[in-house]
């Protein structure tokens, strides 16, 4: 594979010429790395810390959208819906391991609990697709009851939770086989889905709503609904809280996981999408500004990093 050439410019800082040689590493022991999908640039920004800085932009198929990291921090998966592709990247070196063809506009991605496979929502095909990380091939494809949008793996119970476009019901499936186990009706219009760090609660944002829905993953019953903003989109747990991007108001919301109360609202910029946590740092992909906003565990903005055109998905990994 050809080595990457990094070209410095006053306007962009770092420009990508070709896919990657190993990422340069800082001397600090508390290292972290983040991958940011640049939807309008056909690339993924590779960001290292601490201090956080842009290392390179890695070319991927057009329209990179959502990003997920394996629990062991070895791999990152990136969906590219308009290109019908999923890219699997070795996280520590930023080397592309595989580019996998997935028909039906692959939208969301998440790893199996052992990190050996990636589940993908093929939205327009109304299917879930399972990719082997080792072979870079599709090993399973199962039909869903409607167009699947977002998904998350419950590593504690080995279950796969999937939101369905235009439905108030969600699918709960085996994370091993994709077999449909339950289809609870939650009300509203579930959009994104994610878990607290101990997998004791499953959280949903809702389309065209200012509310989050909190569900018991065992009984699959709604525990509560929390109104937190104009239209919360995506979230991540870590640094002692649930972090939520409010797409409508351009804010980052900090929610206490125990009380389930909104504690802090911090403006980050126009159209924030995904958020990730690395240790005590919170990274927000701000689509409108082309930046990653860097926040502390107290929800104070401590910096902004220009990464490229159209940041959308982001995943962060602590490197020990």
Strand order of the largest sheet: 5-4-3-30
From the N-terminal CA to the C-terminal CA, the straight-line distance is 27 Å
Contiguous low-pLDDT stretches (5 residues minimum) are: 1-28
Overall pLDDT level: 92
Oligomer: single chain
SSE run: EEEEEEEEEEEEEEEEEEEEEEEEEEEEEE
Structural shape: globular
What is the count of DSSP helices, taking H or I runs of 4+ residues?
0
Helix content: under 10%
Note the main sheet.
4 strands, antiparallel
- The number of distinct β-strands equals 30
Task: Look at the helices and sheets and give the structural class.
Answer: mainly beta
What's this, in brief?
This protein has about 325 residues and is mostly beta strands. The chain contains no helices and 30 strands. The protein has strands spanning about 5, 15, 30-40, 45-50, 55-60, 65-70, 75-80, 85-90, 95-100, 105-110, 115-120, 125-130, 135-145, 150-155, 160-165, 170-175, 180, 190-195, 200-205, 210-215, 220-225, 230-240, 240-245, 250-255, 260-265, 270-280, 280-285, 290-295, 300-305, 310-320.
């Amino acid at each position: 594979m050809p080595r990457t050439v990094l070209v410095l410019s006053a306007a962009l800082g770092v420009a990508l010429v070709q896919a990657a040689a190993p990422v340069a590493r800082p001397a600090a022991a508390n290292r972290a790395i983040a991958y940011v999908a640049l939807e309008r640039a056909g690339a993924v920004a590779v960001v290292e810390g601490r201090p956080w800085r842009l290392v390179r932009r890695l070319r991927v198929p057009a329209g990179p959208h959502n990003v997920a990291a394996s629990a062991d921090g070895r791999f990152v998966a990136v969906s590219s819906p308009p290109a019908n592709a999923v890219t699997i990247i070795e996280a520590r070196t930023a080397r592309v391991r595989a580019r996998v063809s997935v028909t039906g506009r692959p939208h969301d991605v998440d790893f199996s609990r052992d990190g050996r496979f990636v589940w993908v929502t093929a939205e327009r095909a109304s299917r879930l697709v399972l990719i082997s990380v080792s072979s870079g091939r599709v090993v399973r494809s199962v039909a869903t009851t409607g167009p699947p949008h977002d998904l998350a793996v419950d590593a504690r119970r080995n279950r796969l939770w999937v939101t369905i476009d235009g439905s108030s019901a969600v699918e709960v499936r085996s994370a091993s086989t994709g077999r449909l186990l339950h289809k609870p009706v939650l009300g509203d219009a579930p959009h994104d889905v994610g878990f607290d760090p101990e997998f004791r609660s499953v959280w949903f944002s809702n389309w065209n709503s200012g509310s989050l829905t909190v569900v018991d993953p065992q009984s699959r019953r709604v525990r509560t609904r929390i109104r937190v903003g104009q239209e919360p989109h995506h979230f991540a747990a870590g640094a002692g809280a649930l972090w939520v991007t409010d797409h409508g108001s351009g804010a980052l919301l900090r929610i206490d996981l125990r009380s389930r109360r909104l504690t802090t609202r911090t403006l980050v910029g126009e159209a924030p999408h995904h958020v990730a946590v690395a240790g005590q740092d919170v990274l927000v992909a701000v689509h409108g500004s082309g930046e990653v906003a860097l926040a502390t565990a107290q929800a104070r903005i401590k910096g902004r990093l220009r990464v490229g055109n159209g940041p959308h998905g982001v995943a962060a990994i602590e490197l020990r």
